[in-house]
Amino acid sequence: MILLGRNQETQEKCEVEAGDSRRILICGKTGTGKSYTLGVIIEELAMYEDAIIIIVDTQGIFWTMTQMNDDQEEELWSWHLDPKAYRVNILVPGDPVERYGGEDVIKEMETRGAKIQSLLLNPSDISEEMWCDLFDLDINDLMGILLFKSVRNCKKKLQKDFFIEDIIKQVEQDRGSMDQTKEAVIRRLEMAMDWEIFERYRYREIWEILATDCINVLDLSTLDPGRYGLRSLVVAVLARFVFSQRTIAKRREYLGLTSNIPKVWLAVDEAHNFCPSGKSTLAKDILIRWAKEGRQPGLSLVVASQRPSAIDMDILTQCGLKIVHRITSKDDRKAINALAEDYLDRSLDSALNTITQTGEALLIDDGKETIEAIKVRPRLSEHGGGSATK
Question: Which of 7, 112, 190, 289 has its CA 20 to 30 A from that of 97?
């Protein structure tokens, strides 16, 4: 069970099931406790040893879970809880020393309990279509056709063991393309090498750096969220790999065969950046598939956003548990109200008017067909985004 908080009216504990695969939405305007509540859920999940927890962190605020929440010690005692520090495995796209600005930063974070690892993407884990999308190339245009064909040739000849240099060689050897087209594609591939987020020497499975005994924090705060969508690329590659491996593991489990791949919880903060409404990103399709098809292979999803109206409805409608903090935007209130089920005896819009304080939220549980106003419990570990309950 996940202890979220207390019912505002009865003061009874508010708990939700965590054993089965879940889809959870957390939303609320800035400063109302959205990321804080996400941290509470992660803390609760970390008590289970049979699941991998991955947080997509765009602000670099979740590594502080390595520190105890001493600032709210008295409030925690009133809940019969104690401050707690968690083991955190931080995955940094590229070189952590370069991304964080120095070896001294790494050492200080490690002193505070963080384990820091470099995450490099395998070029062979990226589909031909994704390579073209990365550079905004149409697969029916000359450059798109050339890049698509070159990546496919690498997959056929080298299987998993190819790198950007190998794609460049395929481009250079193509006999059906003009030199100008080749040069344009090669320039883009060389630029991708300069991003320093790709493996260059060996294929490394993501399982090698994911930890089952830690909270895995994918720190995307050091990546530019600009035109090439590198943040979405990293999320897409990781989510696709995990989805594929858990699907294989589930089949083995069904047949009574051994599997060393546990269930996975993926939590995505600022989710509107990865699965936006009316727009495409490299991560959108796999996140929608995760939301729609992930239950059977044991994949759970938590999406958090200050702009629920900006999240694709294919994600929102799959969320059977909604934690709604204060929202004032007409578009956001309309989006939440559109998710109301028949069992509600009043509109969500009117219920939202009762949520006025930081840390308060509506808990809407479609499984139990209930709605209640809650006060989120205090964090056990330090909240890097600021104390949302004060």
Answer: 190
pLDDT on residue 219: 96
| 129-133, 285-289, 337-341: least confident range | 337-341
245-268 tens-digit pLDDT: 899 988 988 898 888 888 899 999
Q: Is 0.85 topped by the overall pTM?
A: yes
- In this structure, of 161-165, 254-258, 275-279, the range with the lowest mean pLDDT score is 254-258
Reduced 3-state DSSP string for the chain: CEEEEEECCCCCEEEECCCCCCEEEEECCCCCCHHHHHHHHHHHHCCCCCEEEEEEECCCCCHHHHCECHHHHHHHHHCCCCCCCCCEEEEEECCHHHHHCCHHHHHHHHHCCEEEEEECECHHHCCHHHHHHHCCCCCCCHHHHHHHHHHHHHHHHHCCCCCHHHHHHHHHHCCCCCHHHHHHHHHHHHHHHHCCCECCCCCCCHHHCCCCCCEEEEECCCCCCCCCCHHHHHHHHHHHHHHHHHHHHHHHHHCCCCCCCCEEEEEECCHHHCCECCCCCCCHHHHHHHHHHCCCCCEEEEEEECCHHHECHHHHCCCCEEEECCCCCHHHHHHHHCCCCCCCCCCHHHHHCCCCCCCEEEEEECCCCEEEEEEECCCCECCCCCCCCC
Instruction: Tell whether the model's pLDDT for residue 311 goes beyond 70.
Output: yes
Average of per-residue pLDDT across 64-68: 94
